[in-house]
């Protein structure tokens, strides 16, 4: 029988609420996934789900079916009141379901022996919405993996998770990667470093893409950091006809990734190694 929780003072609710803090997400190696679609994607991905909280007063057959599916798969599902859901939620209008999920990531060694591929590297992307959108776009383009360098927004923060729309469960993700170690790994394993840049760069529409491509997108304000630009084998830019000074980094990611896809570099994502 499904257990009910009606108090925001319940120890499990307090413990779950703490996951809004990066400190506790790191200590417990867990994070919150909110919304029907994101919980569905978590269930389908094979990531370890700790608990699901479901507001039974929400009139949504899809949400109810998601909770029921989780129970059939052995996940603990708790029936909570709207007040409790509001406490746990990071949104103004909760969808009525959220889960706590164990973190999962890979490291660069999983890609050492690949003959080809496109790894997207994000360099100090600070905005959770931009980071989540980039990961969602990378998933749509079917790239090999996404590497988050140290200094990026927290992948597991509620706003980032929500912006990925569940795509973080479908891509190999390397988190908190050191820049110098990345450069060394690329050099050792013959992955060509391609950095986005507004100066000294080739148009993405004229660029001869390498078979092993490590594409770097930089910080919203300052672009790719100096050590990575210095290490780059190639630099690329997106030509613009208008008067805008620059593109939003998530928009630029979409344009570049899908140009690479059109040109035949990107192959279907083979999943987490």
Task: Explain the layout of strands and helices.
Elements lengths: L2 E3 L5 H7 L4 H7 L1 E5 L1 H10 L3 E7 L5 H12 L3 E5 L1 H7 L8 E6 L14 E6 L5 H14 L3 E5 L8 H7 L8 E5 L1 H11 L2 E5 L5 E2 L8 E6 L8 H6 L2 E4 L11 H14 L11
Parallel strand pairs: 1-4, 3-4, 6-7, 6-11, 7-8, 9-11, 9-12, 10-12
Antiparallel strand pairs: 2-5, 3-5
Helix pairs in contact: 3-4, 6-7, 6-10
Give a brief rundown of this model.
35% of the residues lie in helices and 22% in strands.
Describe this structure in words.
The chain is an alpha/beta fold and about 270 residues long. The strands form two sheets. The protein has a seven-stranded parallel sheet with strand order 8-7-6-11-9-12-10, sandwiched between helices. A five-stranded mixed sheet has the order 1-4-3-5-2. It has two domains: about 5-100, 60s Ribosomal Protein L30, Chain: A (2-Layer Sandwich); about 110-260, Alpha/beta knot (3-Layer(aba) Sandwich). The model is unreliable at about 270-273 (pLDDT under 50). The protein has helices at about 10-15, 20-30, 35-45, 60-70, 80-90, 130-140, 160-165, 180-190, 225-230, 250-260; strands spanning about 5, 30-35, 50-55, 75-80, 95-100, 115-120, 145-150, 175, 190-195, 200-205, 210-215, 235. It contains ten helices and twelve strands.
């Amino acid at each position: 029988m499904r257990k009910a929780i009606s108090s925001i003072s319940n120890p499990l609710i307090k413990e779950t609420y703490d996951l809004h803090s990066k400190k506790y997400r790191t200590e417990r190696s867990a994070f919150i996934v909110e919304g029907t679609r994101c919980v569905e994607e978590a269930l389908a991905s094979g990531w370890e789900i700790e608990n699901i909280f479901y507001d039974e007063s929400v009139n949504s057959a899809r949400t109810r079916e998601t909770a029921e599916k989780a129970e059939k798969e052995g996940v603990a599902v708790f029936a909570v009141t709207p007040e409790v859901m509001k406490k746990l939620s990071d949104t103004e209008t909760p969808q009525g379901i959220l889960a706590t999920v164990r973190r999962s990531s890979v490291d660069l060694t999983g890609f050492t022996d690949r003959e080809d591929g496109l790894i997207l590297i994000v360099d100090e992307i600070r905005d959770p919405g931009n980071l989540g959108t980039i990961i969602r776009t990378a998933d749509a383009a079917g790239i090999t993996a996404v590497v988050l360098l140290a200094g990026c927004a927290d992948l597991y923060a509620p706003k980032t998770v929500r912006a990925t729309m569940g795509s973080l469960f479908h891509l190999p993700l390397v988190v908190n990667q050191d820049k110098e170690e990345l450069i060394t790994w690329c050099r050792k394993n013959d992955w060509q470093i391609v950095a986005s840049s507004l100066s000294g760069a080739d148009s993405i529409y004229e660029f001869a893409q390498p078979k092993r491509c490590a594409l770097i997108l930089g910080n919203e304000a300052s672009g790719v950091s100096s050590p990575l630009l210095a290490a780059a084998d190639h630099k690329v830019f997106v030509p613009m006809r208008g008067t805008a000074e620059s593109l939003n980094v998530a928009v630029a990611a979409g344009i570049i990734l899908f140009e690479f896809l059109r040109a035949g570099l990107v192959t279907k994502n083979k999943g987490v190694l």
